[in-house]
Amino acid sequence: MTTANNQVTVMGAGLVGSLLSLYLAKNNYQVAVYERRNDLRQNYVEYGRSINLALSDRGWKALEGVGIAEEIRKVAIPMYGRMMHDVQGQLSYQPYGKENQAIYSVSRGGLNVALMNLVDQNPNIDLHFNQQCLHVDLVANELEMLNTVTQEKLKIPANRLFGTDGAYSMVRYALQKTERYEFSQTYLEYGYKELRIAPGENNQWMLEKNALHIWPRGSYMMIALPNLDGSFTCTLFFPYEGDVSFNSLQTEADILDFFKKIFPDALPLMPDLVSDFFENPTGSLVTIKCFPWSLEDKVVLLGDAAHAIVPFYGQGMNAGFEDCTELNQLLEQHSGDWQTIFKKFQELRKPNTDAMAELAVQNFIEMRDLVADPRFLLRKKIESK
Ligand code: FAD
Question: CATH number for the domain including 310?
Answer without folding.
Answer: 3.50.50.60
